Every structure is written in structure tokens, then in C-alpha cells.
Automatic annotation (TrEMBL):
InterPro entries: DUF6111. Keywords: Membrane, Transmembrane, Transmembrane helix. The chain crosses the membrane at residues 5-25, 40-61. Pfam families: DUF6111 (PF19606). This is Uncharacterized protein.
Amino acid sequence: MLRIIFTHLLLFLIPFIGYAFWLWINRKAQTSENWRSGPLIWLAFGGIVIVSASLFFLASFEHMPEGKTYRPAEIRDGEFVPGRYE
């Protein structure tokens, strides 16, 4: 669960990282005024759109086969048995 939260947090931060990189490339990052007057609302909106799209695609393409039961991974007799559908 923590991995999923960190993944979506990273996806949300992509526009902010891109903007910081753009400021750095253009040598405008020396002042914090660029961040204060920057498009923070639009960056946050872009991050929300990216996270929403990732959740949509995750829900669309990740599905359990119908009529099957998932058996989680386990260690049986000292050997790792991966998760599977039965």
C-alpha cells in the first residue's frame, strides 16, 4: 500500500519537478519569486490529472480473471510459491 501511495505522490510531483527543471535550465531558479509567481495552481491541476489518468488506466487494465480465486504468495516447506489464480 505504501508503494502505491509513493507512486501516486511521485506522479503528482512530475509537473513540479518539470517546472523546477525548466527554471534551472533557464537560470531563473536563483530567486524564490519565480516559485511564488509561478503557475502553482496549474502545476497542481496537472498533477491531479496525471494521477487521475493513472488510476483510470489501472482500473481499466488490471482485472482479475472471471471465475478464478486468487491465492496469495506463500512459503511452503521453505520454498517461495508465487501468487496465482486458481
